[in-house]
Amino acid sequence: MTALFALVTSLMWGLADFGGGLLTRRTPALTVVVVSQSIAVAVLGVVVAATGAFSEAGPKLWFAVAAGLVGPVAMLAFYKALALGPMGVVSPLGSIGVAVPVGVGLVLGERPGVLQFAGILVAVVGVVLAGGPQFTGAPVQRQAVLLTLLAAFGFGAVMALIAEASTTVTGLFLALFVQRVTNVVAGGAALYVSARRGGRVLPQDGGWRVVRAALPALAFVGLADVAANGTYAIAAQRGPVTVAAVLASLYPVVTAVAARGVLRERLRVVQAAGAGLAVVGSVLLAAG
What sections of 52-207 are H helices per DSSP? Predict the structure, then answer.
């Protein structure tokens, strides 16, 4: 069950990243984050009210608050790094955030078997290669590397924090709701500051009309991201965090495949090899 929920997580995160990437081509990234997460808050609020999840409130929710604060910072750092580029270096480097939850699992006493350890190594290498790393070209700016490492640590920290935020299903609903509310508050504050400083908030062509037309896609991105956080938390609670984290981090493969299928982007040889290794690693982890 751990492998199943973790693989669903990678599917949801991969599709959310793909959808978010398409949306940010016309709409500022911070606006995409705030609007998509606001929709997620509205849906989660209904779920929390319907299930009576507010009764699960307790000190563990501070983990959800921390995840909600770290998430937007990581995302903004990642987008800034992508702007500085090159993307072929930034994207795979960002996937090393899996080291955070894996490290937490090891500190807590988890010890993967030989087959699982081999699966972890193969899957991580596959994920990095699936991002299409550039081995030649212009040197990478130090700021881009530092921002990418910050984003990677943030993404990994969110995975570790949300796994600790609840122990029950209804508690998980509440934790995800608190996380998303914090996301919206933090992101909204950043958007307000950006607007005050003259930053662009709406698409240059079409303004609010473009945002309204994109609401279904924004809703999908926000809800897919929420679903991924939820399935990851369940995976981490049902089995080894080391296994759940690595399998959940296969989402770059999903994003690359989606780009190939929808946008007709051709996979480079290194990306195809990485996708294959990621699949092999996931099989080894599941078998172990």
Answer: 61-84, 87-94, 99-107, 114-130, 142-164, 169-196
Read off the pLDDT of residues 146-178 as tens digits, 9 standing for 90 and up. Answer: 887 788 788 888 888 888 888 888 889 999 999
Return the H-helix or E-strand segment holding 207.
none
In this predicted structure, what is the pLDDT of residue 165? 86
pLDDT digits (tens, 9 = 90+) for 97-150: 777 777 777 777 777 677 767 777 776 777 667 655 555 554 446 677 788 778
Distance, CA of 10 to CA of 39 (rounded, Å): 21
- Give the model confidence (pLDDT) of 236-258 as tens digits: 888 787 778 878 877 767 776 77
Largest CA distance in the chain: 56
Amino acid at the residue 153: F
Using only C-alpha atoms, the chain has a radius of gyration, in whole angstroms, of: 18
Q: Specify the pLDDT at position 272.
A: 67
Closest by CA to 25, choosing from 197, 271, 204, is 204
- Give me the amino acid identity at 78: F
Residue with tokens 């609401």: 215
Class of residue 69 by CB neighbours under 10 A (exposed 0-12, middle 13-18, buried 19+)? middle
Contact 116, 284 (CB under 8 A): yes
The DSSP letter of residue 54 is G
Residue 185, judged by CB atoms within 10 A of its CB (0-12, 13-18, 19+), counts as: middle
In angstroms, rounded to a whole number, what is the distance separating the alpha carbons of residues 130 and 91?
9
Distance of alpha carbon 252 from alpha carbon 54, whole angstroms:
35
Position 222, amino acid: G
Region at 264 (left for phi over 0; alpha for psi -120 to 50; beta for the rest): left
